[in-house]
Amino acid sequence: MRSIGLAGALLVGLVACGGGGGDGPTGTNGVASVALNAPSLSLLVGRTDQLVATAKDAQGNTLTTAPAATWTSSNLAVATVNSSGLVGAVAVGTSDVTATISGRSASVRVTVTSAPTSVTVNMPGLTFTPFRATLKQGGTATYVFPSLAHNVIFERVPGAPTDIPGQVSNQSITRTFPTVRLYQYSCTLHPGMDGEVDVVP
Length: 201
Ligand SMILES: [Cu+2]
Hints:
With 201 residues, the chain is mainly beta. 10% of the residues lie in helices and 45% in strands. It binds copper (II) ion.
């Protein structure tokens, strides 16, 4: 009882001191710092990702009444950012994206990379691995068929490569993907054996 009472008294004292001291590094509108929803971003060329900035007071509490953030990018040739914090990956490289609220700011490093121009899809067990292969537009996917026979039948969409039909084993077959979109395919010999190729700019 006695120790609980002491702890309670100490806690009240600390809160009172923090709240009444007024000596914290608080900027205008009570904003002491800015927090971002991601410590860093990694994006493929042509992709976007949403950053969210939150204003904090000197105690680390979210300030819902703070003004909206303004956004800047240190290297617009690599990454852009719009007035809502939507980051666009332009070209391979790095850029620091900064959100500023009432004179306080926070930054994240954005790393932009290019998708590979070729990928290999293996078939361990009854799976395509990787399930989703990301590929640069015009790139190739090589399907490595093991001793257990499979096939590759693409969803009928514009730009889909020619199927690899029948029962294929012990060989590698390559397909080219000239069009940007997500291609889904299946092995019709094994229900549920599905894969995707995500073709990006
Ligand atoms: Cu199969």
